[in-house]
Amino acid sequence: MSAVLAMRDAGFILGAYAATVVVIGGFALWVLRAGRRSGELVDDEEKYWT
Amino acid sequence: MSPGRIRLARRLAAKDLLIERRSRVLVNQVLPFSGLVMVVFAFALGTGGVLERAAPGLVWLAVLFSSLSTVQRSFGLETADGAMESLRVAGVDPIALFLGKAAALAIELLVLVTVLLGLAVVLYGTEPRAEGIVLLVTTAISATLGLAALGTIYGGLAAGGSGRETLLPLLVLPVAAPVLIGATRGVEAALGTDRTAVSEGWPWVGLLLVFAVAIGVGGALAFGTLIED
Amino acid sequence: MTPSPQTSTRRATGTRATRVLGIVTLVMLGWLGLFGLVLSPADVDQGDAVRIMYVHVPTVWLAYLAFIVTAVCSALYLFGKRHSLGFDRVAGASAEIGVVFMALTLISGSLWGRITWGVYWQWDARLTTTALLFVTYIGYLAVRGLDGTRERRARRSAVIGLLAVVEIPLVHWSVRLWRSLHQEATILDTDLDVDIDGLMLFSLFVGVVAFTLLFVWLLLHRSRTIALDDLLADRGIDRAIAERRAEVGPSGGSS
Fold first, then answer.
1. Do the Cβ atoms of A19 and C59 come within 8 Å?
2. Average pLDDT in the C154-169 region?
């Protein structure tokens, strides 16, 4: 762990990974939440994946 | 490419140009605007050597921005009173429709380019050289054809109001990037900016022509679908 | 009588398959972090900056894949006999995901550039083309947002999606030709000039697999949600028409 933090430019590198986690995580959460919201308004019979 | 289609396209282009001649929107509004843009560039960039070096690019930037209003005008004519809608419903060949509008647009833009190049000579101190004239004219025409095709496609899409017209710049500018790059480099070579040789400009003309053909063909085929209701 | 548990909650866009896919994706992403940041070695030339590449390269490949999926689905919608709207929905979902991935590409790329070149941005062929593409597909999404019938949206977007794909080589060539003229100071070399060590290649591989799985997972969920939203919108219109008819009443008089 300390080796990772001791990297040169650790800030930028970890920042890139953090940005990835935040953006992907945020987008995935938004996708799931939008799906849940819409899913509650429609009967299961009309969903082609159920 | 049947003669009937070409004749129809010619009539449609003539119609647009006649409207322009009567209403003088290009002459009274767009040209002054683009001239103003050229002047304002000088304020932003200062009158040192930068202006002369940047002149080719600035001319095409001004053309690009002005083309947006020209396109909107061109299609505004069609949506007011549902003119294009009537033509479409009457079964007018959409390819002819596309070619006609694109041709009229091309002529209007060519006028614009010529005036702005002249302005650049006056305002920015650029001087065309004899050996570059052919390149200059060819570049101008090739670039204009591409821009006209581009404008006609996205103009057809963005026409009709309700938040659509503001979409036009967003759609056009990224796609117009190759034209901006190619046309600027072509004019630079023609003028000798940065000691560019005339011969270096011709590959760019090639690129501009490929672009014009690709977008022109794509647009002609897609136009019917785009203006469909 | 106890109410059946199924009547109160309706299902969202997940299925057992997507749950499994999601878990595998998370595990792979975790591996990517582990291998990328800890287990793989630093590069001889770039140093630790190469670690960003394990994220940056997959995101750019997946962004391109997403846009290709959009183009293919656009074509399948437009030229297919049945003009199946399912293709339109996948095209739209894929473009959304592509835009997100491309944004990540630009972010990770500029951080890498900050380390390697000292600048967040430079006007080289690849970066410039990526930025232009990013804006192009934002335009595509804006076109999808225009009002109109489902079919109109599908038709318009399909055309724009196909045109966008045609533009990609044009934009790429012109920018590349442009930048190749200015080959000064190529310390700013953007080619991934890495003497690929086995472990580094493996990390890259993990990244590509992880992001591909992520793409599929996102695509499934997003397309299903768009299908639901379309259904709801259509129903909203039907209801509005029914209400209007009810207003007018059996006499059929105008109001």
1. no
2. 90
